[in-house]
Specification:
The chain is α/β, with parallel strands linked by helices. It is built from 21 helices and 18 strands. The strands form three sheets. An eight-stranded mixed β-barrel has the order 10-11-13-14-15-16-17-18, surrounded by five helices. The radius of gyration is 49 Å and the shape is rod-shaped.
Amino acid sequence: MSLFKQLLLLITAIFLVIFAVNFLTSVYNTRTYLEIESEIHAQDTATSLGVSLSPYIGDETDDILLTLINAVFDRGYYREIKLVNMEGKVLVQKTNPPTFEYVPDWFVRLLPMKTATAETELSSGWNLAGTLYVTINPGYGYLKLYEQASLALRYSVAAFVIFTLLLYIMLRFVLNPLKKIEQLARDIADGRFGQISDLPWTTEIRSVAIAMNFMSEKIEQMIANLNAKLDKVSEQLQLDDLTGLKNKGSFQGDMKNLFMSHAEGYVYFIRIDNLGEFAKTHGSEKVDNFLKDFAGLLSDISKSSSYELKAYRFYGAEFALIAKSLPEADVEMFGSQLSSALAELGQKYDRPDIAHIGIVPFDISSSIPGLLEAASESYEQARLIGANAYSLHKRDERVRDVGKWLALLERVIREKQFTVTYVGQVHGLRKDAGIVMEEAFAEVHDDGETVSIGAFVSIAEKYSQIVNFDKGIADTVIDHVVRKKVPHAVSINLSMASVRNTDFRAWLADLINTNHEIADKIVLSVTAYSAAKHLQQFEEFIGFVHETGARVMLKRYETEFISLDLVKKLKPDFLRLAREVTSEISQNRSKRLFVETMKEVSDLLDVKVIAESVVSDNDFDVLREIGIYGASR
């Protein structure tokens, strides 16, 4: 029951008791007053009438006795007037009904009044001649009491209704700010930090409203500071400390995103030759300056080129350039330009042969390990060609053509020729949490050969078959959860095409509603990169999923794609950090600071943070110490 109803009922009950007590007291006081007045009136009448009758009582047959008694009795205030002689003989007796017809019987029974009777002795000369009895008619008393009680009741009810109405209005006015305070508290819990502008006039509630405003402002400032810290740390994690170029983790993340967006292009893998020997003959400062100049050269080329280029430093002497959408006709021309630029830099350091370049094409069917392996082979080929030379790796002839891909897609989807394994078990990092989630991972085979799932999904997206594939996976996983009575959550990876598809949403809602008892075990997972490109549809999807009782996870999360301000707005249930963020966290202060800050913000936003594929025991212990929700090994 709300505070408003409690106060209204309590104070109304108090009013009711007060009015009832006042009413009853008034009625009882009136009755007592009327009874006393009746006794006094009866005695006065008996005395005065007795004096009037005394001169005539000597003659009991004198008509004046009856005349005088009738004159008094006819006023109607008396129930009985009786004159009795000394022998007990009734000389005169007049009687009236005890009540009036318009006084209800129940009222008479409920409030009985004592009938007042007075008597006086009459004398004739010096001798007693008789006794006069005067009994007041209680009907007049009941009438006056009834009229007084009715009037008091009307006034009491009217006053009660008026005071109750005033109480209702006053409580509404006084307690209405509590609704604003409640709404502000809910807004804060949802990550919206407003203010109560119209402060209530009630001192105590006003103080609470001011405190809520202060808390809202402080939490908003705290999250803003944490966001700024996260952005700064996130940026540091993506950059090489010495050269300022993006690091290998950023390269891998960018390549994954390019694969997902079906982009094509080339990777220029560049390795400085004999950097170890150069370091032996020159000091560390000279080596650092050399690496900075080398990185500056790549950065300048990236910025000045008409192509879409990004430069990276992996570690040590290894660098890379991603050339997205580079025309095939310009690949070798750009390689030649890059080779000439390296030769010019080598002259500055008296090193005519400074580095070699391996060029590898990538497309929808590529994978990062395959790219790096091919790049290393091309680099070795370039070393055989000449100083600062490049070598272009030819596309793999074994790559399936479009017809074969489409045939494979049709067969896999129609016949459900895929297997689902449950991997990446997430261990809860809180005490005795056990396994809290595992990931459903699809595998596709073609003639006994495992097909790259990333390439398969990309091809399925390109040819508008991904929705049917995602339906098959989701149906298989939910059936598994129901049959096996899986006690923990299971994440299902979805493509953004499925997320945006209204038919898929309707199908998914029916599937989950049919199996509503396990709805909270289903976690629908989307990459942060994909969600960032379609934020409005993803936000709608989260709301839709929450209505079904299932949950949503943003995987491979980095603030580069979706800021925590957007997370606050989107309200996913889980954030799974990109693998590069937590790798070697036990040895990297910046990564630890980033995850600690993420944990603080996620606690405020009520979002659970998960780390994926933690290899090192030391890293796992650090994550447990930080206190995030869970981590997979």
